[in-house]
Amino acid sequence: MRPARTNLTNGPRHGRVLAGRDGRDISRLLSDFGHELPSVPPTLHRPRDSRLFRHVPRRGARRPGRGWASGSAPVSAWRMTSEQAPVLWPFISTPGLPPTGAQMGIDLLSGGSFYADPLGWVLDDTVPVTNPNIFSLGKPGRGKSATTKAFCLRMMDFGYRVLVLGDPKDEYEPLCRALGVQPFAIGHGMPTRINPLAFGPLIAGWDQLSAEQAQGRAAIVFARWLTLVRGLVGSQRVGEHRVQFGPTDEVVVKAALAHLTGYAHGNTRMRETTIPHLWRLLDTPTSELIAQCRYADERHFLDDTRTLRDALGQLVSGALAGLFDDHTSIDVDWAAPIQSLSLSRLEPLGDGAVGIALTCLNSWGRGMRELAAPGDARVVVRDESWKQLRLGPEAVKSFDADLRLSRRDGDVQFAIAHKPSDLLSAGDSGSQAVAIAKDLLHLADIKILHGQDRAVGAELETMLGLGPIARDLVTGWAMQGKGRALWCVGDQHYKVVTVLHPLERQLTFTNQALETAR
Predict the structure, then answer these.
(1) Helix (H, G, I), strand (E, B) or coil at 101
(2) What's the burial of 404, exposed, middle or buried (CB within 10 Å: 0-12/13-18/19+)?
(3) φ/ψ of residue 185, rounded to 5
């Protein structure tokens, strides 16, 4: 017989044993002779750990495929500002704005839509904005006008109306006509007259006011008129120097205006006056006016007010002749979606005449908005505002007053210029006019910075406080396409591309003259 064949196997409960074909192994053979081999205890199954994260040693788990390393990598610490962080983490963007207001385009830093809502931002404590004023700066042809018109048009859907206080290039006429409004044209030989000394809505119900109420309204009206006259007189020159408007001049002008309107005599019905009327009264003063201004006689009065009278006379016979020297001849429909006052007919007269016209229109527009109804919000467009600032410190103060009233009136003041240094042209370096003009930028918490040449980079950093990354966006990326701009909402920056509908492109196109010249 063949001997039984044994195999080496692993038993389920025993150690290493030899088993034959009949299934008997060594443990059973030894059991027959009274010897029992020790048994291996059964494996206890531990419950699975329910923790999501487990501790891993610093050098990794010491098992194949677990990334174990014999030595740890050196760790270096880096510190950087929020402007430098996007270099290493390019997908970190500025905190998002609420999706309210006009949908302007795409925010390329977040990839979402960008919405502009100046008044809403002021009311939202999470947005670092305290006033709704906007300064739009950019090189010509970079899309300033298109962005401005798109903003105005889209804000109309939220109940806003638009008032263009001076359109030097007739850029807003197509938009007005598309909305069924005929713009008013101001120029020599044109029927439109604007009286910057108009009372505005404050004249309504004057005869029914108490003495205290009438005094309060008079203070508002005379303050606005004095700001205007100060700006107009200060725009004139004696040689290379601006005409000074001092405290004595202010007393004389205020007293003359009170005589002309009847306020000095306690009239309950006020008379509207004009700048030519003011000049004539100062040129031929009454004895009552001379005494009220504390002059010894008429000669003393005429000698002391000669410069003031000559400055007003130059305006009456020069830049204001036939434009702002009579009562207002237009009936403005304030319920219309847009109203525009065109100044393109004044371009041949030079920047000075346009600047004086803008000053008059701003004063008139401020008067028309004195008693605006609650909820009657407007976007007030001030195009080519730098021309007004070049008239001197008094004109700058007038513009400054308009910006400071935005919170009270609820209007969005939208000023347009080419570059930050345009504000410095208000006067000599270090002068009061330049100091006030530079502060104007701080009265606008919202700035739209379109493409600029690299030579303007220093201005962007010095006057606006932009860092190198934001500066390079304005001088680099924004110059590579129209409608690209860096929106500065408080201290937050947004990289925005304005998106226009095909119909909006037709209404915002400003190169008609260039196309016809080809």
Answers:
(1) coil
(2) middle
(3) -105, 130
Average pLDDT, the chain: 82
Looking only at the bridges linking them, the beta strands covering 484-489 and 492-498 are: antiparallel
In single-letter form, the type of residue at position 309 comes to R
CA dihedral 248, 249, 253, 259 (to 10 degrees): 40
- How far, in Å, CA of 272 to CA of 199, rounded? 7
Q: Which residue has the higher pLDDT, 91 or 32?
A: 32
Specify whether the CB–CB gap between 180 and 345 falls below 8 A.
Answer: no
Q: Which helix (H) or strand (E) holds 471?
A: helix 468-475
CB 401 within 8 A of CB 220: no
With residue 379 as reference, give the H or E element that holds it: strand 378-382
Residue type for position 19: A
Amino acid type, 224: R
- At residue 14's C-alpha, the angle toward residues 11 and 18, to 5°, is 60
Whole-angstrom distance, CA of residue 365 vs CA of residue 165: 7
CA distance 76 to 64: 28
With H, G, I as helix, E, B as strand and everything else as coil, classify residue 481.
coil
Cα→Cα distances 314→233, 237, 309, 321, 437, Å: 9, 10, 9, 9, 26
Domains of the chain: 111-194+328-517 (3.40.50.300)
**For residues 399 and 166, is the Cβ–Cβ distance under 8 A?**
no
Contact 134, 417 (CB under 8 A): no
Q: How many CB atoms lie within 10 A of CB 188?
A: 11
Global model pTM greater than 0.70: yes
DSSP structure string for 239-292: TTEEPP--HHHHHHHHHHHHHHHTGGGT-SSPPP--HHHHHHHHHS--HHHHHH
Average pLDDT score over residue span 406-432: 74
The reported pLDDT for the residue numbered 238 is: 81
